[in-house]
Specification:
Elements: E1 2-3, E2 6-7, H1 13-20, H2 24-37, E3 42-46, E4 52-55, E5 58-61, H3 69-79, H4 82-91, E6 93-100, E7 104-113, E8 116-124, H5 131-134, H6 139-144, E9 149-154, H7 161-175, E10 179-184, E11 197-202, H8 210-216, E12 224-227, H9 233-244, E13 248-253, H10 258-267, H11 271-284, E14 285-295, E15 302-310, H12 313-320, H13 325-330, E16 338-339, H14 341-350, H15 356-360, H16 366-381
Parallel strand pairs: 9-13, 9-14, 10-11, 10-12, 12-13
Antiparallel strand pairs: 1-2, 3-4, 3-8, 4-5, 6-7, 7-8, 14-15, 15-16
């Protein structure tokens, strides 16, 4: 049901009773369980609004009473332990996790807004989906098993970067004898040691910060270093140095597309350092994989669209010479080292998986997308 106040999710009478009875903590656990059963992404609790879920990328409200500031204060008082409460008072925001037996884990964030509290929880699945379930391209397997270099997974928040990264870690764990060290905030997927040792360090619990954890990571004799998010000068500098010195470095980054990731990395460094960083990046960068999740026409979840920029002579030269802007145009030549987002978008539209309007939201070259869709449909009718 949609109104001027947004979309409200329909509930059965039994669901409505289950989500609105008991104490606040019990209701929150019921909401988290409901999110997990619906295979949603996030739960949002804010004073002045009913509880909301993100399902298939869209925010929907539940037909429940709006929460009050007092509700939020009481809930967080019950959910947090004393150490977490002190950390929240000091920092005005807090990352933590909630585990629920038989359902999985939830990555949580508590923050202040307009003098009240808000809470977000993301559902983390215990089992890493397969490449087939995620619809990942086959070449990612090759890059997961590279002996050294830098591999970046990019895209906006909520578009599956962490899950793709987890699949790459799982692939290494199953197929390579390696020492893997991860630095995460917080840990999302828990891995069991298989052929590899997987040592997962959580910021706040196992190390004081990303910077502190990365400062000592090479002393831990890793073959593979996983950085949950490259988001500052120090993490990027460490990643580049480690990739240059014989380690495989995997990480995620917020960037609109594959070529923008290179510019974002360079933006963290001052002018007199950029020449050195461009040279490092040109040699170390193995792959940038940019991804989006789009609503399916059949309403059954979301579909993956992606683009990639992988190491080649022309990519290395463009990065080293500071001419990354030319790579965007070269993508329409559709060579193996530069594959545009429009290619997978066109496959999804021509195959009837996603609507054209949905694909256009993520296309940087709409006319090129339409041309590719036309070609694919013509081939399909021959």
């Amino acid at each position: 049901m949609t109104s001027e106040h947004g979309t409200t999710l329909s509930l059965t009478p039994d669901e409505k009773i289950a989500l609105s009875t008991g104490g606040l903590t019990q209701q929150t656990h019921a909401l988290l369980a409901f999110l997990a059963r619906r295979r949603g992404q996030d739960l949002h609790l804010s004073a002045g609004a009913p509880p909301s879920l993100r399902l298939d990328g869209e925010l929907v409200r539940l037909p429940l009473p709006p929460l009050t500031p007092e509700n939020m204060q009481q809930l967080m008082s019950e959910l947090l332990n004393d150490e977490q409460k002190r950390a929240f008072v000091d920092n005005l925001e807090l990352d933590f996790a909630i585990s629920m037996p038989e359902l999985g884990r939830f990555r949580c964030n508590l923050y202040r807004q307009r003098g009240s509290l808000s809470f977000t929880a993301r559902f983390l699945r215990d089992v890493v989906p397969s490449a087939e379930e995620l619809r990942l391209p086959a070449f990612l397997h090759t890059f997961a098993l590279k002996p050294q270099g830098l591999v970046l997974i990019t895209g906006p928040n909520g578009h599956g970067k962490s899950t793709t990264l987890a699949w790459m870690i799982d692939t290494i764990n199953r197929e390579r004898n390696a020492n893997i060290v991860t630095i995460e905030d917080p840990i999302e997927y828990h891995f069991h040691h298989r052929r590899s040792n997987v040592n997962q360090r959580e910021v706040g619990a196992d190390t004081r910060s990303f910077a502190e954890g990365l400062r000592h990571v090479v002393r831990q004799n890793p073959d593979v270093i996983v950085i949950g998010e490259l988001r500052d000068h120090e993490s990027i500098a460490t990643a580049l140095t480690a990739a240059e010195t014989g380690h495989l470095v995997l990480g995620t980054m917020h960037a609109l597309n594959a070529t923008a990731a290179v510019d974002r990395i360079l933006d963290f460094f001052t002018g007199d350092m950029q020449a050195q960083v461009r040279a490092q990046l040109a040699e170390a960068l193995q792959l940038v994989f940019a991804q989006r999740l789009l609503k399916r026409v059949d309403g059954n979840g979301r579909a993956l669209a992606w683009e990639s920029m992988s190491q080649s002579l022309r990519v290395r030269n463009a990065v080293r010479e500071g001419r990354t802007h030319i790579l965007r145009g070269l993508m329409q030549a559709n060579q193996d080292d530069l594959v545009p987002m429009e290619k997978s978008l066109a496959d999804l539209v021509a195959g009837g998986v996603v609507a054209r309007d949905e694909a256009l939201r993520y296309a940087s070259a709409p006319d090129y997308l339409d041309d590719l869709v036309k070609v694919r449909k013509e081939r399909g009718h021959r």
